Amino acid sequence: MTDPLLLPNAPKLDEDFSNYFVINNLPKCEEAKVAKLNDLIKKTLQKQNLFIKDEDIDMPIEPASEKTFGVAFIKMNNEENARIGAAIFDNFKLTKSNVFATCLLAEFERIMQTPEEF
To answer: Span 22-112: which CATH code?
Structure first.
């Protein structure tokens, strides 16, 4: 079977994720509480005149636990705003055990390859 993306008439996928940033170390919560975290993210960005919609925030749910993974992917309207958003949430202290770490999505894969003992 041929990969459909390799066919001559396959649609071009946008592989530019420069306008996304990642927030790590969010509280792991049930889907019912995701809206509350989304509001926190949106209101924090609004204080800096950066506006996003609910659909610009993706917080995946782990099927086994039915809770979030503790990570959110945020879509901004351009790379500059993504960098500003990442800076706003980097070291953001929600609770003692929830100090956020952020990066641009383009940097995420490189960061995930960092050894645990680093």
So the answer is: 3.30.70.330
Full pLDDT tens readout for the chain, 118 residues: 777 777 888 777 666 778 999 999 999 999 999 999 999 999 999 999 999 999 999 999 999 999 999 999 999 999 999 999 999 999 999 888 888 988 887 776 666 666 665 4
What does pTM read for this prediction?
0.78
H helices of 1-118, where? 34-46, 79-89, 105-112
